[in-house]
Amino acid sequence: MKIKVAIADDHKLFIDGIKSILSSEKNIDIVTEATNGLELVNAIEKGTIPNVIITDIRMPVMDGITATKYLNKIYPNIPILALSMYDQCADVIEMLKAGANGYVTKDVDKCELLLALKKLTRGEKYFSKNLPENFSNWCPDAPLKDDINLTRREKEILALICKDRTTMQIANELNLSKFTVDTHRKNMHKKLGIKSNTGLVSFAHKNLDFNVGS
Q1: Of 61, 128, 173, 176, which sees the most CB atoms within 10 A?
Q2: pTM assigned to the model
Q3: Domains (ranges, CATH) in the chain?
């Protein structure tokens, strides 16, 4: 049986790249191409029903998270694979909570993408090798705000990172050594599975209650 695939991404070159990767696979057909979530939803509602959906997260008009929430309610039997440049845990959790069945980053190779598609069509889940080792054990309804395992000091440092303070400025403001600040920062990267300060700021905006813009 052929796997019918729908793709949604706001970059046509990326869609063309995915089509090129999958074109040599005789058991895979690209049945829908969309440049945003709304186009994807409209195509499916008009009767083009895929076996699996590949969608980006950040798209205009309707993003991947909103489209996934909608499609998961109306077509719960169609598995959805999130495919994005973002590899931060908060983004992955949002997609899982919306109903996605898997997540891979855009630097995925052909073999891994094919494996992900096959697993999803078999009713399994798949997570990119780039994600934290224990990520596949995380559940879609994992709480965000109420169960963030950051210490009070880590949250203080994160708040200052969000205010664009340098490590030395943070150390001076909190009366800590530069080494201590760096250690707390590394611990946050490890706990949250986030690789950059930009990722920490994005996580804080989405999940913490303090005013990160002040």
Answers
A1: 128
A2: 0.64
A3: 3-137 (3.40.50.2300), 152-207 (1.10.10.10)
